[in-house]
């Protein structure tokens, strides 16, 4: 009995090891050269009809029925247009048939794992490309998405001109040959010798179902990417969905494995039908047939079980690797909002778009990281906010900003295109706004002169619309908490866009205020009740907006308003000027045109916004009426709140402030009694604002 138990245990152990090996091999898919999960074609849900159709199609795609015999596979599956799936597979022209099918099988496992819900995706290995979509791709020349790779070795400076000349001739040769390849295969290879005696090898290829002209156009466009892809390099490639090319100074293909295309068929000779043959026999039944049937009966259940086990394993793996993000709570209460996984970008995509986050593409540096300009393969310019890895608040603000901004759609709010959460990397991908931030315009002595009153008024009105959307029109009431000139971006038409929602708080619609012990923001723009007690509300944003109005009108920073040799804070000067009837002194001297009444009305509104008493400040809805209707009588403003401090940072979370007695306080609410109101005849010292 013990021997039987031991042998049975050994059998199951061996069986489990074999299963483990098979499952491990199923997971051990090689990494793509590049892949794209395309979001603009919509998503599907797990176990939906589309999902099942996709799995059915991809499992049968690398079969001889769907291939043309020369490395091209095309098929579709599904009964109706909503759930029908289309797929294309293309192997390099020198890849053997069995290697081609193996590559496409690897692709279908890897691509559905990397893009678990997108209806359209594309991935490339060295030997093959797999692409699927919810719309037909057959015969349609596609140039995006695309990628390029370069050989790091440089061409010698002495032979550069000759190398480039021979390369151009070689690429032109393989382009024309590939384009003329016909409907079975559009693939060409060749080599040339550079003046430095280097041999240049090159290939070009198109999906064979597109026309000769479309193939030629696609390759010409790809050749045009060489200055971005691989200038002065001995090798490189540009890969598009419908075409690709590559060149190197070493042999990277095997010409002997390229199948010869069939010759055009000749007219068949007229032959008499052959006489009946007595040598042909038909065999049915017999021992061989019975053996085959037995093998099939045994193998089918085993294969089904293995597929089931592997599928469960893949599902568990994908489920484990998904990163679920939830929105930060309103106040301190959790209010979970749906996942933003459909917005996720691959880190390598952003790394290439920003030229590996080069200094040349750096737009600015802030408290939570740097911002870089980038360009996606579809030609779209982007701004990438790369959170600092040593920021203790980075993950918190990152999750908040992703899931908050992803839901906001307004012309005066910056648009979030996506995010990347990979390892220690935390990236936010925004639309690129060409004119940078408002502080780079309004505080620049030269650029400010080019900003007339109409443009400034347009910016004020646009900011107003953006804030009122946050406060009133979005599903949840949103308190920005960090409105300032460096967080207002300006597009090419001088439309303002509010950005940087890392500090934002959500309110339910009937909530009017909240408290926090973690006071964050920027000196000079913070309302007194927030800085002193951690109380924030829509009126906190109104206070910051009032500071912005006065800065836009005066063209000067709130902490260092200059008039002749005198330097004082803007709010103090504006209030004293208003009280003395000389409010026109606040106006930027470069504003030589524009309605003086309109400018004075904006100063009036700004002073109403920065009043110390919360109840006295107007709402954003009433500010809209004040700006749009001169029939609305404006109340007389009361004295604004003034602060005195001496630190040099910009964020409350990382800086202190001092009062008149020299006591230093941080952001803790228990120390709020160190904030004092300055007398009317004293000048407040506001810390310098650093954009981030």
What layout of secondary structure does this protein have?
Elements (H helix, E strand, L loop, with lengths): L1 H26 L6 E10 L5 H12 L11 E6 L7 E7 L5 H18 L3 E7 L3 E6 L13 E4 L9 H20 L6 E8 L5 E8 L5 H12 L2 H4 L6 E4 L3 E6 L37 H36 L25 H7 L8 E5 L2 E7 L5 E7 L6 H12 L10 E7 L2 E7 L6 H5 L10 H21 L3 E3 L8 E3 L5 E3 L6 E3 L5 E3 L12 H6 L1 E3 H17 L6 E3 L2 E3 L1 H10 L16 H14 L10 H9 L28 E2 L5 E2 L27
Helix pairs in contact: 1-7, 4-5, 11-13, 11-16, 13-15
Q: How helical, in percent, are the residues? A: 25-40%
CATH topology of the largest domain: Transferase(Phosphotransferase), domain 1
What structural category do the secondary elements indicate? alpha+beta
Any idea what the radius of gyration is? 34 Å
Q: What is the count of DSSP helices, taking H or I runs of 4+ residues?
A: 16
Could you name the ranges where pLDDT drops below 50 across 5 or more consecutive residues? 1-5, 21-27, 266-293, 318-340, 508-512, 643-692
Give the mean pLDDT. 76
The assigned CATH architecture of the largest domain is: Orthogonal Bundle
